[in-house]
Specification:
The protein is mainly alpha-helical. It has 3 helices and no strands. It has helices at 6-25, 29-46, 51-70. Helix 1 packs antiparallel against helix 2 (29-46) and helix 2 crosses helix 3 (51-70). It is elongated and about 45 Å long. The termini are close together.
Length: 81
Amino acid sequence: MIVPAEKELRAVLAKFTQASIEHEALPTARTGCALEDVTYKLCVMTGTRTSDEALLAADALLERYRAHREHGTHEHETLIM
């Protein structure tokens, strides 16, 4: 599996958080669609099927990025599982 770049993963996580907040505050068709779209992107990036699984996988990936930085792996390198 090809792993997303850390910067891209963090950007999608930020969009997911924003869409979740907006939909929770004022649920509309627009906020629901926005949340569905970003949830789909996050699931595709993490190779999962639900938002809960995607968030757990994203946390694990972020931990791997941190560990690789500590061991000298450059941020721009692609991690392959």
